[in-house]
Write a structure and sequence with these properties.
This protein is mostly helical. The chain has ten helices and no strands. It starts with 13 loop residues before the first helix and ends with a helix.
């Protein structure tokens, strides 16, 4: 690969110098070498050394080049492998990039859809919120209207208070400041109802129910039967006194009761029973209403039913706060009890006492209206 340089003609090659050596040997002995001959020998050595050096250099250079070529080939092979791997990675990256772009596009589409849905939901929520407030106000208005009617017709103060409290609780769940006016009006109506004097309508109604339940068992003057007299106490038989001595000690058994004493005791008992039976045959009573004694069983039944109807009407008048009808029905029931029923009986006296307690109840209470709350609700609905 690396060729040795050739010598020009003036400078003979080392081979020519070797060939001239025999010629010099052929020269006659004793002749002195010339200057050229003296210079050719060192020059031949230098050329040989130079040739050896050049050959070593050439061999070293060729070896380095060969090693370099091998290293370059290895590196090129590694580079090809790396390029192949890089190409695979580049293709994978491109494919991943395409997939990411597809996913990003899908996410963008979903985001746009989500934004549109969010806008639609916000609009729907606003509409529902508005409708919910309207529905709540409508329901509150209906409840307050019903409570006001019950308050005026039946005087149901606890029911009206419960309706106002429920309405205030419903409005308190909303954070709208516009409802403060309505809540103030509801608070004023609640204070009016709490300031009313309490009427124990339930207690009065229970007393009336107790009297109604006793009417069928109350004794009447027309169905009164003579009361049997109590059996007289029989006197103890007087036995014979025991015989005692001066010191008070018994000295013997008592003497037997005589026969005459037994006959007298039996006659007294028989005569007492006979006189009791005779006294029950004739009874004298003073009755201010004679017609009460002449009622037939049918008339007595309808009289009892009439008393119960009067008491039921009084109970209905109590619930409806109609004091005039309440008083009239109670007076009519009390008159019937005093006129046709036996007022000496304990049950009749108990019923009359209950009616007197009921008649002492005061129903003349002017019930307020819930106009403030209803007006505030209707004004808010009209503005919105």
């Amino acid at each position: 690969m690396n060729e040795m340089p050739t010598l020009s003609e003036p400078n003979a090659s080392p081979a020519g110098a070797v060939k001239t050596a025999p010629q010099a040997a052929d020269q006659p002995a004793g002749r002195a070498p010339t200057l050229l001959e003296q210079l050719q020998k060192p020059m031949s050595i230098a050329v040989i050394v130079l040739a050896v050096l050049l050959a070593a250099q050439s061999w070293s250079t060729s070896k380095q080049i060969r090693n370099l070529r091998e290293e370059v080939a290895k590196r090129l092979q590694k580079g090809d492998v790396s390029n192949a791997e890089t190409g695979v990675l580049a293709r994978n990256v491109q494919e991943g990039t395409k997939e990411l772009q597809i996913k990003v596009g899908a996410l963008e589409n979903r985001q746009s859809e989500t934004q549109s849905q969010q806008l639609a939901l916000e609009q729907l929520y606003n509409d529902l919120s508005k409708n919910r407030d309207e529905w709540a106000l409508t329901e509150i208005e209906q409840v307050l209207s019903t409570a006001s009617q019950q308050l005026q017709l039946a005087g149901n103060v606890p029911g009206a208070l419960i309706a106002l409290q429920n309405a205030d609780r419903s409005l308190s769940r909303s954070d709208k400041p516009q409802f403060i006016t309505i809540r103030r009006a509801i608070g004023r109506d609640m204070e009016k109802l709490k300031a009313l004097p309490s009427v124990d309508s339930t207690g009065v109604a229970l007393r009336l129910d107790a009297v109604i339940a006793q009417v069928d068992s109350l004794p009447m003057l027309s169905d009164e039967t003579p009361a049997l007299p109590a059996a007289p106490e029989k006197p103890k038989k007087a036995g014979a006194k025991p015989v005692r001595d001066a010191a008070g000690k018994l000295v013997g058994p008592p003497a037997p009761e005589p026969l005459l004493q037994k006959v007298r005791d039996g006659f007294n008992t028989w005569s007492g029973d006979m006189w009791a039976d005779v006294r029950q045959l004739i009874r004298i009573r003073r009755v201010d209403t004679p017609e009460a004694l002449m009622l037939s069983p049918t008339q007595s039944y309808f009289l009892r039913e009439n008393v119960k109807l009067r008491l039921l009407n009084a109970r209905m008048a109590l619930l409806s706060r109609n004091e005039t009808a309440f008083r009239n029905d109670l007076i009519a029931a009390q008159d019937a009890l005093a006129k046709y029923f036996d007022t000496r009986a304990k049950s009749t006296q108990t019923a009359q006492a209950l009616l007197r307690q009921v008649q002492g109840s005061n129903l003349a209470i002017e019930m307020p209206t819930l106009s403030d709350s209803l007006t505030a609700v209707r004004n808010y609905k009209a503005k919105s």
